[in-house]
């Protein structure tokens, strides 16, 4: 397996700029999921942020991506 690096990106959520650190594959998956839903990555992160229950945002994003990928995998014949 090749090295996986953490990338830090800034996004605006509810009018506030925040930085999020995620491994590159999670950023890639977020782009795919957002595109499939017709959203920007920032808008999707805003939805994840609004739904989280006190959980760290980076962790909430990882759990969201995992759940989305599991759902997509189980929907395939």
Automatic annotation (TrEMBL):
Gene3D superfamilies: protein bp1543. Keywords: Transferase. Residues 7-68 form the Ribbon-helix-helix domain. GO terms for molecular function: transferase activity. Pfam families: RHH_4. This is Aryl-sulfate sulfotransferase. It comes from Methylobacterium durans.
